[in-house]
Amino acid sequence: MLGREQNGTVQKVRNIADLARLAGVSPGTVSRALAGKALVNAETRARIQALATEHSFRPNQMARRLRTQRTGVIGVVVPLGHERRQHLSDPFFMSILGHLADALTENGYDLMLSRIIPDADDWLERIVGSGMLDGVLLIGQSDQFETIERVAAEYRPMVVWGSHMPGQVHCAVGVDNRMGGRLAGERLIARGSRKLAFLGEVRTLELDQRYKGLCDATAAAGLDLPLQLDTHLASDLMTAEIAGHIDAVGDRIDGIVAASDVIAVRAVRVLIDRGIAVPERMPITGFDDLPLSGQMVPRLTSVKQDLVTGARAMVDALFARIAGQDTPSVEMTPVLIERDTA
After folding, report:
1. Reported confidence tier of residue 70, pLDDT bands at 50, 70, 90
2. Cα 63 from chain centroid?
């Protein structure tokens, strides 16, 4: 019988069978009691749980996962087909990752983080078919829209941060990027800018939509199309590229819509280093409204996408899909936060 050995030491409870013998019940009763099932009466459940605590017994998680066919792990994946040198330390990634981690752990899940360079066509199939995950959250569509669509047609527990397009299969949560780009353009035009530029690449769906929104604003005002100045999101390339663009365009622009807050912050630094006053000579807007937007000097005017609400919506949609439900995409309304730079 389990309990104290002859020398007075407490015998270790190694498994559910040991705990069942100590409690004088079946292993099935112990399993249900530790899971908090109402099938076991409250008194017996409390006694078994107290014995488990006394003997520092924790159920084998692998065995539990085999029984429930759940791993308790969600994959959080950052695909970087468009920008292979971008780091996870990017302020946007760090902000949304923090909110996703909070929401997942509050629901009792662990997360497995992967930064992926999509070198093979089946990179996403390998992730969802690994058997290690209960579901997948993708941060960004990168240049992998068609791959995501293909996998989403067969694999339901996946939610993506990004844009939603007509007829889209995969569930996406994000802001209306085109409207956001338009809001930024309209702000610069309203304060007198007539020759606008877009600092950012257009190979990703989200950034392409932001540029198209800026084009909508200039077209509505009867202005020329904005210059599109290709700028990497990788921090080690960004500043030199922005400096090259500013030096090359000279007086051909009088306002800048940056594709992200990080690009806008670097651009402000480049402009000030060249004696170009912001916003007097060159107003500029960012996109994301990250915490750094209100902390820099001058403070950055930015298009806000609510990462707290968005991350929660992603996790809620994912759990609904894990439960077998279908969930539509969520498109949040962008808000222009006016500060010093515009």
Report:
1. low
2. 31
